[in-house]
Amino acid sequence: MLRIKNARIVEKDQLKTVNIYIERGKIKDILPAGEALLSVKKEIDAQRNVVFPGFIDPHVHFDDPGFTEREDFETGTKSAAAGGITTIIDMPCTSIPPITTASNYDYKLNIVKSKAYVDFAFWGGVTPEQVESGEYKKSLKELKDRGIVGVKFYTISGMELYPRMSVPYMDKVFRLMKELNLVCAIHAEDYYLVDYYSHLMQEMGREDPESWSLGRTYEAEPEAIWSVVGITEKVGNKLHIVHLSTKEGLNVIRWAKAQGLNVSTETCPQYLIFTTEDFKKLGSLLKIAPPLRKEEDREELWKGLKDGSIDFLSTDHAAGKYPEEKSSPDIWKNYAGIPGTQLAVPTMLHYGYHQGRLTLSEVQKLMSENTAKRYGLYPQKGAIQIGSDADFTIIDMDKEWTVEPSKLKSKGKYSPLAGKTLKGKIYMTILRGEIVYKDDEGVIGEKGFGELVKSKVE
Prior knowledge:
- GO terms for molecular function: allantoinase activity; cobalt ion binding; zinc ion binding.
- Its EC number is 3.5.2.5.
- By secondary structure, this protein is an alpha/beta fold.
- The chain has two domains: 2-45, no CATH class; 54-380, TIM Barrel, CATH 3.20.20.140.
- The protein is built from 14 helices and 18 strands.
- Strands 1, 2, 3, 4, 5, 15, 16, 17 and 18 form a nine-stranded mixed sheet that branches. It has a six-stranded parallel sheet with strand order 9-10-11-12-13-14.
- The longest helix has 16 residues, at 220-235.
- The mean pLDDT is 97.
């Protein structure tokens, strides 16, 4: 048995000092400080730092297999361990082949499982071709049997192997997914608006960062969210909007929730910290899709986290080859994406908790508990309670440090936070009772220790 002593855990916005007992990778007991179980073979001193249930990043692109010049499962999960993330959920679209069939799923799992430093789950996928042939009826059931947390759809896509889905096709798939009780996750930007205005900007000879924002026009996000909410209103499926970026998009989500629809959403740290003005200054470092928005959008997203209309946080971690894919003077030729998994937790503690926008309890829910519940991983993940996996992120809340991109474990050694001083640092990351990261030693877990986690949604 293992004991974590002097652990301060968050309970109803209060910090409570406890000793946590772990046996065979699970939480066996939680006792007040001073009370002890006998026969402990090993002990970890949390040194009165705050201990959270292991954080979850539910939206990453680790590119393995197929695009491993940008990222792979080893470097991606290493960056997660160093960032206090104990479980990641990998998207189906940025690997070759995409996870659209049981055989593709098995192929990917076989390649990545020996590389993982933290636990992982998978999103599944579906293509228009599968809808046309009817194959999706078989493939989605087989993917669910393998434990996917849901299925990802794009209303606009630049990926040849993972095209956008039209409204009629989404309606068909949503109906099957309602039967299967699976979450339908949407990258929501209206295809027709973005296609027209992006081409218009380029025809005008615009190569500046603002032209990317104007091309991926503001109205595209709420327009696309309305369209998929419209389907969900008819079908009654579970709907999730990824990387929400606009105030108007959030208002659509609020309307849908008020109607009693089963709709959730996430946003990312980049949309909470930076705006279009930062993009104009930093350029390609902040090129993402959807693009950054205005100050009023940034502020409204914080309000959404506080009032519960935004359900949780993700990173949309997508590392480009650096500097090659981030150095063109023409913004249209640069890769859209930034690595975010390693910096998400300290970023949210600094800008969220320390700047008074979020309580520790809200950070815990937004970065662990709510995600686990939505995707059928709770209470195995996302909880500090008896029987849960012994996953913990221990934080030195007051330690200040400066972001140095060269020290990121991701292959993408770049960040718009370069040179920023953050308050709150990962002291230790523990996965199923084993230390996988220590602040003074780095990543010390074993490659391949990370395990597949399956959604328990029936």
